[in-house]
Amino acid sequence: MANRFILNETSYHGKGAINHIADEVSTRGFKKAFVCSDPDLVKFGVTQKVIDVLESNGYTYELYTNIKPNPTIENVQTGVEAFKKSGADYIIAIGGGSSMDTAKAIGIIIKNPEYEDVRSLEGVAPTKNKCVPILAVPTTAGTAAEVTINYVITDAEKNRKMVCVDPHDIPVVAIVDPDMMASMPKGLTAATGMDALTHAIEGYITKGAWELSDMFHLKAIEIIARSLRGAVDNTDEGREGMALGQYVAGMGFSNVGLGIVHSMAHPLGALYDTPHGVANAIILPTVMEYNASATGDKYKYIAKAMGVEGVDGMSVEEYRKAAIDAVKKLSADVGIPADLKDIVKVEDISFLAQSAFDDACRPGNPRDTSVEEITELYRKLV
Ligand SMILES: NC(=O)c1ccc[n+]([C@@H]2O[C@H](COP(=O)([O-])OP(=O)(O)OC[C@H]3O[C@@H](n4cnc5c(N)ncnc54)[C@H](O)[C@@H]3O)[C@@H](O)[C@H]2O)c1
Ligand SMILES: [Fe+2]
Q: Does the keyword NAD apply (predicted)?
């Protein structure tokens, strides 16, 4: 079987990248932007940096901000109505995964209105048309939604996060500007950075991984491992590294899938509104231990990419432990809690385990799993 690989048409990287939005709007002949960005980003003046570029070039726009972290079906549906009234012909998504994912779902439904219920988009939906063109400007260094073919929407009635996979949603332009991420507080930098590391590690060991995706994931692990501590301290080098590292991870996992760290993190976002990166970071080492036997010699290369020395002289058990320990150390160094005790209520575990098993990322896990084994993994963490 042939492997498919999908990436953005165009991407810009580095400080000042947002200024290229003006050229892209002009060359593509876009008329009016529908700007999707969450209320906090508007309040902190982050959204304004892009609006300044639009205004100084005389471009018109409409701002849509009914977007919460772990965005809901309602956030998408009111967005679809607002888009219809706006007269816009393209979208600028400014934010973390929540703003970018909401923008993707709005863009898909506008061009494929038979999916207006949103729920029918879960999994792989056979939409016929490309979404409204999106220019995506990430403000966190984590999800890489600007280069992925995925978006995640919460069904608040069913306490369920729906992972939607659709090549029609990929933004036409990604603008990855570390200055847009500079205002992130330490905790958010740490959590979103650990989300990116989880993408790189799960994408590297997922069932569908192959040489091309391995190339992205190993490089991403290396860049993230050397940059995240600095980014949390808000150094230029750290921010630039994380902006690139999370994007490189996205180029990989978007094309091959993830595993049960994400499957187990999604229900925590749906039920407790746990930040996505925090959930992943806490679960990652435990699932790495569980998956180790199904990963051949891959943990050797993870350990090397994480900067562990002397890996070549190690036994299989030693390098697997070294890879997991390096992940645990990075997570602890950036202030992530070690377990889910303050998050998960024990009586919810059977609901969480079933929900994780039903998640679209589960089939990609390198080790075949079951509801019972996922239950056991949650139990280890509480
Ligand atoms: N599409 C994908 O491929 C993909 C991949 C992983 C995760 N996700 C989804 O993305 C969502 C999480 O996104 P996220 O982790 O980027 O966070 P987010 O978008 O939910 O934002 C979290 C909070 O951080 C604030 N924030 C964002 N950027 C900031 C900045 N520069 N300065 C100050 N505050 C800032 C936001 O206002 C918000 O309050 C989840 O719903 C998750 O399931 C999507
Ligand atoms: Fe993620």
A: yes
**Span from the CA of 54 to the centroid of ligand 2 (angstroms):** 30
Q: Does residue 28 contact residue 142 with C-beta atoms inside 8 Å?
A: no
Pair type for strands 160-165 and 150-155: antiparallel
Q: If you take atom 20 of ligand 1, which residue's CA is the nearest one? A: 69
**Nearest CA to 275 among 378, 170, 142, 136?**
142
Q: Which protein residue's CA is at the shortest distance from atom 37 of ligand 1? A: 40
CATH topology of domain 10-181: Rossmann fold (3.40.50)
Task: Report pLDDT digits (tens) over 316-334.
Answer: 999 999 999 999 999 999 9
Instruction: Report if pTM > 0.85.
Output: yes
Average pLDDT value over all residues in the chain: 97
Domain 10-181 matches domain 186-381 at the CATH topology level: no
The angle, 0 to 180 degrees and rounded to 10, between the axes of the packed helices 186-205 and 316-333 is 160
Q: Whose CA is nearest to atom 2 of ligand 1?
A: 145
Cα of 270 from ligand 1 centre, angstroms? 14
> How is domain 186-381 classified at the CATH fold level?
Dehydroquinate synthase-like, alpha domain (1.20.1090)
Given this model, what pLDDT does residue 202 score? Answer: 98
Domain ranges of the chain: 10-181, 186-381
Q: How far is it, in rounded angstroms, from Cα 178 to Cα 230?
A: 13
Ligand 1 atom with least separation from CA of 182: 31
Atom of ligand 1 nearest to the CA of 250: 3
Average of per-residue pLDDT across 184-196: 98
